[in-house]
Amino acid sequence: MTHTLTSRPSTLLDQVIADTPGKAMNLKACLQCGTCAGSCPSGPDMDYSPRAIFAMLEAGMDEQVLKSNTPWFCVSCYHCMVRCPQEIPITDIMYTLKRRAIAAGYYREPSQENAAEFSETFCDFVENSGRSFELGIAMRYHLRHHPLGAVKMATGMGMKMLSRGRMDITPTRIKNIDQLKSILKKAKELGGEE
Amino acid sequence: MSDIKESPAGQERVGVYVCHCGSNIAGTINVDEVSKWIESNPNVVVSRHYEFMCSSTGQELIEKDIKEKGLTRVVVASCSPHMHEKTFREATQRGGLNPFLFEMANIREHDSWATNNKEAATTKAKALVNAAVERVVHHVPLEKIPVDINPNTMIVGGGIAGITAALELAEAGHHVYLVEREGTIGGHMAQIDKTFPTLDCSACILTPKMVDVGQNDNITLLTYSEVESVDGYIGNFNITVRKKARCVDEELCTSCGICEEKCPQKVLDDNYGAGISYRKAIYRAFPQAVPGYPVLDKENCTYFQTGKCKVCEKVCPTSAIDYEQEDQLINFNVGNIILATGYDLFDARRIPQYGYGRLANVFTSLQFERMVNASGPTGGHIVLRDGVTEPESIAIVHCVGSRDQNYNEYCSKVCCMYSLKFAHLVHEHLPEAEVYNYYIDMRTPGKGYEEFYHRLLKEGTHFIRGKVAEITDADRKPGEEGKLIVQAENTLLGIQQRNAVDMVILSSGIQARHDAEEVSKLFKMGCDYDGFFNERHPKLAPVSTMTDGIFIAGACQGPKDIPDTVAQGGAAASQVAKLISQGTVMMEPVRASIREDECSGCRICNNLCPYNAIEFDEEKKVSHVVTALCQGCGTCVAACPSGVIDGAHFTNTQVLAELKGILWDVEADVPAMEEV
Amino acid sequence: MKYGYYPGCSLEKNARAYHVSTMAVAKPLGIEFVEVDDWNCCGATEMIAIEKIPAYALVSRNLALAAKQNGSTNLVAPCSACYLNLKKVDHYLAENKQLKEKVDQALEAGGLSYQPGTINVQHLLETIAVDIGYEAIKEKVVKPLYNLRVAPYYGCLVPRPANMERFDDPEHPTSLDKIIKNLGATVIDFPLKAQCCGGHMTQISENTALELIRRLLKNAADYEADMIATLCPMCQLNLDAYQDAVNAHFGTNYKIPVVYFTQLMGLAFGIPANELGFGKEIVSAQPALDKITEEAPKPVRTRERGKQHTELPMPTQAEEE
Question: Residue B106, by phi and psi: left (phi above 0), alpha (psi -120 to 50) or beta?
Answer without folding.
Answer: beta
